[in-house]
Fold this sequence. Notes:
It is built from 7 helices and no strands. The protein is mostly helical. The longest helix is centred in the first third of the chain and has 23 residues, at 18-40. It has helices at residues 2-7, 18-40, 44-47, 55-70, 76-83, 87-100, 104-122. Helix 2 (18-40) packs antiparallel against helix 7 (104-122) and helix 4 (55-70) packs across helix 6 (87-100).
Amino acid sequence: MIGQSVVMPVNASGEGHGRRAGIRQGRADAIVNACVMSAFDVSTEEIALESRGPAPVALARQVAMYLHHVELRQSLTEVASRFGRDRTTVAHACRTVEDRRDDPAFDGFIGALEAAIRSARALLPGARSGA
């Protein structure tokens, strides 16, 4: 089920070594998803919809994909796999969010999400200081 890939991401990138790296990656994925779902007031099920869904849900999904790519440094292909989408869809989502960041209010909103994600990730076991 697509929702499971969003809720329980798999470390498909091969980044890191061993089980701990996969657990850290899964927790980082969960942090991004929780921040986006909270900020946009959407559910896991809505983010995981196979269809585009209503505009606010589609935007939340685009922001989540963008943050997975930018903050977690996941490849477009890896993000696509996690969200059950094509890599070109993820590329479009990233371009859309980048274009919208020209609006200072939207940029501040995304910046606040990025800061929250970095702060939460810093609390994960094994997190490097200054990362």
